[in-house]
Amino acid sequence: MSKVVLRLLRGSPVCLRAGNLVTPLAAVFFLLCFFWTETLADPGSPRQAVLRVLAWPGYADDDWVAAFEKRFHAKVEVTFVDSDEALWARMHSASPPPFDVLAANTAEIARYARAGLITPLDLSLIPNRGRQRPYFQQIDTISGLADGHGAYAIPFTYSSMGLIYDRKQIAVAPHSMRALWDPRYRGKVLDFNSAQHNFSFAALSLGYRDPFHLSPAQMRTVARELVGLRRNLLTYYTLPEEATALFVQHHAALMFGNYGTQQVELLRRAGVDVGYVIPDEGALAWLDCWAITEGTVNRALAYDWINYMLEPAIAAQLTQREGLANTVTPAPDGEAVPGRQLVWIQRVESIEQREALWQRIEEGETLRSFAK
Fold first, then answer.
1. 300 within some domain
2. Number of structural domains found in the chain
3. What's 250's domain CATH number?
4. Do residues 32 and 167 both lie within one domain?
5. Could you give the 3-state DSSP secondary structure of residue 56?
6. Treating both helix axes as pointing N-terminal to C-terminal, what angle do 24-41 and 3-11 enclose, rounded to 10 degrees?
7. β 189-192/233-237 pair status
8. In a domain, 360, yes or no
9. Which residue ranges in the chain fall short of pLDDT 70?
């Protein structure tokens, strides 16, 4: 028995004494209490595992998290982001990053892999991949998800970035993104505030084969087109809820739907009779995937999370609640076909150049200044 315990026993007011000795019954009782307390306070004793999740709103709902915590006897700490830039900043807030698993689109996954921030996956530890639609099981055919070192992420949810229109103002559905430039809709168009996506969708509408890697001449042409689009704009938006409020309040006619079907769902809930179009030239689309960080401290639990996210119940609820497509349940009739009608976003030729040009466009520079 340690000297500390003896001192505690001899000095304890709750113990019965016989001279300087503690009676056996009191000693046993006190020792049990002491070691039970010490076990709880011992830093080396087993503790509840913690999984740190970095994701977008709607990807880790409270009831999903609670069910996961109960099943795997773990604690989940969720951090939400609202932009790719915020996601990147969070992953650089400490070294190693203070997260175990994250959700990001295919372009960002490629970026994180190159930066050594995420790790190749052991696909055998994600058996629910077998529940996914065949297209999404073929990870090596989806740009940005795999390289010579392996697969880095598992597809989770996606949305096309199509054209949303008010059926009361536009009786015949438009067939091209070029409708955004139609002078009939002057002051009635909403556009997403993004350098990368605006240059890409405008390039796609012009028929450029690769909207993500523009030549200097193509870049100038697209910049001029985006300057011209300003004539029709009501304003730019950032979040889907903001876009819904603007659409309703100002009776917008057309919108570049960066959040796609999620925005359609929000507008319909707001009482707007909207239609949704995948343009004839195809639509940009984002595919968000789950990945495990290189510095994870709970690798097994991270695999459990990804596998859990592919359960049919979660997939169905994601679509029902958020209006987003999932990779597990069968696609509804009429949904755009991944890999054919949808063009997954990729890393662009120069983020810096696009953002510099976009700032000039947003600030109202004249068309003449983009002549060269």
1. no
2. 2
3. 3.40.190.10
4. no
5. coil
6. 120
7. parallel
8. yes
9. 1-47, 333-334, 339, 372
What span, in angstroms and rounded, lies between the C-alpha atoms of 218 and 354? 12
Do 230 and 357 lie in a common domain? Answer: yes
CA nearest neighbour of 177 among 155, 153, 161: 161
Whole-number pLDDT of residue 85:
83
Residue 28 included in any domain: yes
Q: Which amino acid is at 273?
A: D
Listed in sequence order, the residues at least 6 apart from 167 whose beta carbon sits closer than 8 Å to its beta carbon are 273, 274, 275
pLDDT of residue 19: 42
Q: Which domain holds residue 19?
A: 3-41
Nearest to 170 by CA among 182, 160, 155: 182
pLDDT of residue 25: 46
Residues 230 and 364 in one domain: yes
149 assigned to some structural domain: no
Nearest by Cα to 241 from 216, 226, 258, 218: 258
Alpha helices, H only, the chain: 3-11, 24-41, 62-72, 84-91, 106-114, 134-137, 195-205, 216-229, 240-250, 261-269, 299-309, 312-322, 351-362
d(CA 304, CA 72) in angstroms, rounded, equals 8
